[in-house]
Design a protein that fits this description.
The complex is a heterodimer of chains A (398) and B (301).
Chain A (H helix, E strand, L loop, with lengths): L2 H17 L2 H25 L4 E7 L6 H11 L3 E7 L2 H9 L5 E4 L9 E4 L5 H22 L4 H7 L13 H37 L2 H6 L4 H34 L8 H29 L3 H7 L1 H18 L6 H7 L5 H10 L5 H29 L9 H7 L3
Helix pairs in contact in A: 1-9, 2-9, 3-5, 7-9, 7-10, 7-12, 7-14, 9-10, 9-15, 10-11, 10-14, 10-15, 12-14, 15-16
Chain B lengths: L1 E10 L2 E11 L4 E5 L6 H8 L7 E6 L2 E2 L2 H4 L2 E4 L11 H11 L4 H14 L15 H13 L5 E5 L7 H16 L3 E5 L3 H7 L2 E6 L2 E7 H7 L2 E8 L14 E6 L2 E7 L4 H11 L2 E7 L3 H9 L1 H5 L1
Parallel strand pairs in B: 3-8, 3-9, 6-7, 7-8
Antiparallel strand pairs in B: 1-2, 1-4, 4-5, 9-10, 11-13, 11-14, 12-13
The chains are: A mainly alpha (398), B alpha/beta (301).
């Protein structure tokens, strides 16, 4: 029988056994619900433009409606005017939440009048309403004094505001995308890498590994395990990304950059590379342990490296995606899976750099797998206590 | 034919195997005996390539055993173990496929063996839901489903109830009758004597006795003589210091004698003592051969 078939049988067993398990199905459903929820819920809560309902106690000064609408426009706010018969009607409308605020200004503009809320006063609304009322009263005074009202209104025009390099929605989306990428890779490496680790220890604990190894080569068993669990990781990742994109498009919350497909492909590639690198390390370290507690101790160095790489990515690289830290981290196999997709999201890495980084990382995986498989072979039958890497290396059956 | 040739294995200062050599022929059941720590499990692991010997070789049909050859072996390790949460039928089929059977052939073999073990109705159960004895039956099915040419069973009877032992014995005999070579280790020597034709006895990593049980018995100088003389109360033996008495029970005495014993003389003495009811001259039990082989000085004393 070919080794490929043997590896495939191991991988298929992992996919079927774990893919059908309640734990995996629940975690896929849960993450999907979480992703979709994080898009849909804010839309439901804060969705649509806010319209403030402003009650105006009649009789009101002529032009107040227009002044309110014009001022609100300047602040990019929408207001709806509700005429009210008297102050009592205004209070009733406030109590019943028919309006958000009630404005009472004497029709002859003899005083500034009042603005009343049901409970909390909203400062934005206060400023908009106050500006409108003040402007109306000043115009009234100016008109009486014979100054040209048109010239006066023109003089009230506020300066235009802009920025040299405006923050666009696209930048926000990129920033978000970069952060999500880094988190996804970290979560993927951890959850599925640790599934490999626990799988290896479970096989030792249940002693099934001796039966398995009487027909399957140790390195084929490790490879099949990494492949099978990796397929589940990719499934979960695809479900996650599809759910996120679907929810984003459906709720219309983001403008997706044109580079989205490239960034997604980059993310998938680096998810696979990161997972392969870290799960291989976790797999053979798991083989050194004979109990779960020992396994988590054995895996500590890998955990630390992964966390450190993640922090380099989100603190060192997001701030300066083309800086020296980012460039160095691109060529270090442990940090590349976190850093490269992030730089790609910011469009701050060239295809050549990505290519070199992929080659270095693949070489590192191949090298680690060579060492790991031998250590795994030497350690996996040792069922008492924790084994040293050197002893495992020596006792491996080649 | 399986040939274990000069296997040597050290773990640091501990010598696990010290030039162990024996053969297992097709259609023969070999009992692989030895005290705890004698090297039985290490030998079996060497056969399956799980332990790399420092020296020596394991040969199958004249060639060094490789992975292809091992696919035709069936193994039941001492440390039993299967996937606890995997369904029984899928599990047996999985291992049969790992031994090279196609999916369909593996499923058919699984069905056949589960029926044979009386566990067809548990096909969809998870292994951990089965009783200990039934898990052992599944373990045997895993070793057998791919129709191996060599069966290596490490302590197959340990933890089995009499019913389980009967099934196990029956299956082992049936496989041997079909031409399969069987090697199994056990501490239950009476059972081994019952089931096996050949034995290999290992002690401190060396093979100290090997061959057909009958031949080994014949070769041994030890004989048992059981004599019952009615009403004698064994008195006819008194005063004879040259005889080694194993047991005295009323009129019945059991003697340990050499194969050079003067049977005619003893028969005459017993007859003279009274009515002779039993006079049985027998080879030694396997357990004695075992003790003799494993610890010769102790037995001689």
């Amino acid at each position: 029988m070919s080794r490929a078939r043997s590896i495939w049988l191991v991988a298929r067993r992992e996919i079927l056994e774990r893919g059908r398990s309640r734990g995996f199905i629940l975690s896929v459903l849960f993450t999907t619900a979480l992703v979709v929820g994080s898009f849909v819920v804010p839309t439901l809560l804060f969705g649509g433009e806010q319209v403030a309902k402003i009650g105006i106690v009649e009789p009101s000064p002529p032009g107040l409606d227009a002044a309110l609408t014009a001022t609100a426009d300047r602040f990019d706010l929408k207001g709806e005017i509700v005429p009210l018969a008297d102050i009592a009607a205004g209070d009733a409308a406030l109590t019943s939440k028919g309006v958000d605020a009630v404005v009472h200004v004497p029709a002859d503009l003899s005083s500034a009048g009042s603005i009343r809320f049901a409970k909390e006063t909203d400062q934005t609304t206060v400023q908009v309403l106050s500006a409108a009322i003040v402007s109306l009263r000043v115009q009234h005074v100016v008109a009486e004094s014979g100054v040209d009202p048109g010239a006066f209104i023109a003089a009230q025009q506020i300066p235009t505001v802009d920025s040299l390099d405006p923050q666009t929605d696209l930048d926000t989306t990129r920033f978000l995308f970069a952060n999500i990428s880094a988190v996804l890779i970290l979560v993927g490496v951890f959850s599925f890498g640790f599934t490999v680790l626990t799988g290896v220890v479970e096989e030792k604990q249940s002693r099934v590994v001796e039966v398995v190894l009487s027909t399957v080569r140790a390195r084929d068993l490790l490879m099949g395990k990494v492949l099978g669990i990796g397929v589940l990781g990719i499934v979960q990742m695809v479900v996650f990304v599809v759910a996120a994109l679907g929810a984003a498009v459906a709720t219309d919350r983001f403008e997706l950059p044109a580079t989205t497909p490239v960034a997604l492909v980059t993310l998938m590639i680096w998810f696979v590379l990161g997972y392969a690198l870290y799960s291989t390390a976790l797999g053979f370290l798991g083989a050194l342990a004979s109990r779960m507690e020992e396994a988590s101790n054995a895996s500590t160095p890998v955990t630390m490296i992964a966390m450190a790489s993640y922090f380099v990515a989100i603190f060192g690289v997001i701030d300066d995606p083309s800086g020296i830290v980012a460039q160095v981290a691109t060529y270090v196999p442990m940090s590349a899976p976190f850093v490269v997709p992030l730089r790609a999201a910011f469009d701050a890495i060239s295809p050549i750099e990505i290519g070199i980084s992929v080659v270095i990382t693949v070489a590192a995986i191949w090298f680690l797998f060579g060492i790991g498989a031998r250590v795994y072979a030497g350690a996996v039958l040792q069922t008492a206590g924790r084994m040293k890497i050197r002893d495992a290396w020596r006792s491996a059956v080649r | 034919m399986l040939e274990v040739v000069e296997l040597t294995k050290r773990y640091g200062p501990v010598v696990a195997l010290d030039g162990a050599t024996f053969t297992a022929r097709p259609g023969r059941i070999v009992g692989f005996l030895g005290p705890n720590g004698a090297g039985k499990t290490t030998t079996m692991r060497c056969i399956f390539g799980l332990v790399r010997p420092d020296h020596g070789d394991v040969r199958w049909q004249g060639n060094s055993v490789d992975r292809e050859a091992r696919l035709r072996f069936g193994y039941m390790p001492e440390q039993r173990g299967l996937y606890p949460r995997m369904r029984v039928a899928e599990q047996v089929s999985y291992f049969a496929q790992q031994h090279g059977l196609s999916g369909a052939a593996a499923d058919a073999a699984t069905k056949r063996w589960l029926e044979r073990m009386g566990l067809a109705d548990r096909a969809k159960s998870k292994l951990e839901e089965l009783s200990h004895g039934n898990q052992q039956r599944i373990q045997l099915a895993v070793a057998l489903a791919h129709d191996p040419e060599l069966l290596v069973l490490d302590e197959p009877f340990s933890g089995l109830d009499p019913l389980g032992i009967a099934t196990m014995t029956e299956v082992v005999r049936e496989r041997a009758a079909a031409g399969v070579g069987v090697v199994f280790s056990s501490h239950q020597l009476d059972l081994v004597e019952d089931v096996c034709e050949d034995v290999v006895i290992i002690a401190r990593g060396r093979i100290v006795a090997a061959g057909a049980i009958d031949e080994l018995k014949a070769r041994s100088g030890r004989r048992h003589l059981e004599v019952e003389v009615v009403g004698s109360n064994g008195g006819w033996l008194d005063g004879d210091g040259s005889l080694s008495v194993l047991e005295r029970d009323g009129d019945r005495v059991k003697l340990l004698v050499g194969d050079d014993v003067d049977l005619d003389g003893l028969l005459a003495r017993a007859r003279a003592a009274g009515e002779l009811r039993t006079f049985a001259y027998q080879p030694p039990r396997l357990s004695e051969l075992f003790m003799e082989a494993v610890n010769p000085t102790e037995v001689a004393r």
